[in-house]
Design goal:
Elements (H helix, E strand, L loop, with lengths): L2 H13 L2 H8 L3 H15 L4 E4 L2 E4 L1 H28 L5 E6 L1 H18 L4 E6 L2 H9 L5 E6 L9 E14 L11 E2 L8 E5 L4 H12 L5 E6 L2 H9 L4 E5 L14 E2 L5 E9 L6 H21 L1
Parallel strand pairs: 3-4, 3-5, 7-11, 8-9, 8-10
Antiparallel strand pairs: 1-2, 5-12, 6-10, 6-12
Length: 302
């Protein structure tokens, strides 16, 4: 049974006349009669009584008409809903990322996206890169912004799209002996208390490996997940710390941090999504805007 058959039956029932129904539908009367015969055979009952003036629904026809009209209404509503999704007139996006992504990269992009598409709803989750990648692979998130490379066990399930290179820069308390410098060396941090990211996090691993590569073991006296918390703890004099360059670019009067003379401390941020699913129109549009924002950021810094 097809929607076309249901639409034609509804037209016959409403017109009460085969010829008028055929004319309104743009088909021939023999074709319409053949359709009705096939439909009645499929239903297993006569749906219309033929009279000298036209046709009227039988009792079975009246029952079937109610369901046919409901089916057509639902199908039309489904088509309209899909069109709205494709036109970004409705939909939702579930996105996750680490502290840098959710605090500094995503807010501006999401804000601009919602100005263009206010009907799209967002659910945002902050978590470590491994957790975000796993949630995307499990289908609980549509999109993630993570530190690359991702865990090898998840690589086959995810599409990885390079987003931006993120330099990690040293920040120091007011009055610190390194405050007036623009750069530091790892040996400058020997014996210095460090306010660090949580052990095991992707960004902490990048920092620890760079320090160990220079032969320095960092004295981490406090571990935090929040970048803003690290900045506040450093400001109170607890120790020095590392944060993303994006956390230092919000105002001209804020410190921009110290780069490393022994080699830039950086990580690659990437977008991840399921490899076996096509992104929705909304997710694809947000992905494009994230990539555009990253390109503009690179251009501004070059």
């Amino acid at each position: 049974m097809e929607l076309t058959q249901l639409r034609q039956f509804i037209a016959i029932a409403h017109e009460g006349h085969m010829t008028r129904a055929a004319s309104s539908l743009g088909v021939t009367q023999p074709a319409l009669s053949a359709m009705l015969k096939k439909l009645e055979a499929e239903v297993g009952a006569d749906l219309l009584d033929r009279t000298g003036r036209g046709v009227t629904p039988t009792e079975a026809g009246r029952v079937f008409l109610e369901y046919a009209e409901d089916a057509v209404r639902r199908a039309d509503a489904g088509v309209e809903a899909v069109r709205e999704l494709k036109g970004l007139q409705r939909g939702s996006i579930r996105i996750g990322g680490g502290a840098t992504a959710t605090t500094y990269l995503l807010p501006r992009v999401v804000s601009g996206f919602r100005l263009e598409h206010p009907a799209i709803r967002f659910s945002m989750r902050e978590a470590g890169s491994l957790d975000v990648a796993r949630l995307v692979a499990q289908g609980e998130l549509d999109l993630g912004v993570v530190t690359a490379p991702i865990d090898a066990a998840l690589a086959g399930d995810l599409v990885v799209i390079p987003l931006v290179e993120d330099e990690l820069r040293l920040i120091v308390p007011p009055g610190h002996r390194l405050e007036s410098r623009r750069t530091f060396r790892w040996t400058d941090l020997e014996g210095e208390p460090v306010v660090g990211f949580e052990a095991g996090s992707a960004v902490r691993t990048v920092i620890d490996r760079a320090a160990m590569g220079a032969g320095v073991a960092l004295d981490v006296v406090m571990e935090l997940r929040s970048i803003e918390s690290i900045k506040r703890m450093v400001a109170t004099g607890i120790g020095v710390g590392f944060v993303s360059r994006f956390a230092l670019d919000e105002g001209g009067d804020k410190p921009r941090g110290l780069g490393c003379r022994d080699g830039k401390v950086s990580r690659s941020l990437a977008i991840v999504r399921r490899s076996d699913r096509s992104p929705s129109a909304a997710v694809a549009a947000l992905e494009r805007q994230l990539l555009d924002a990253a390109r503009r950021s690179r251009s501004a810094r070059s």
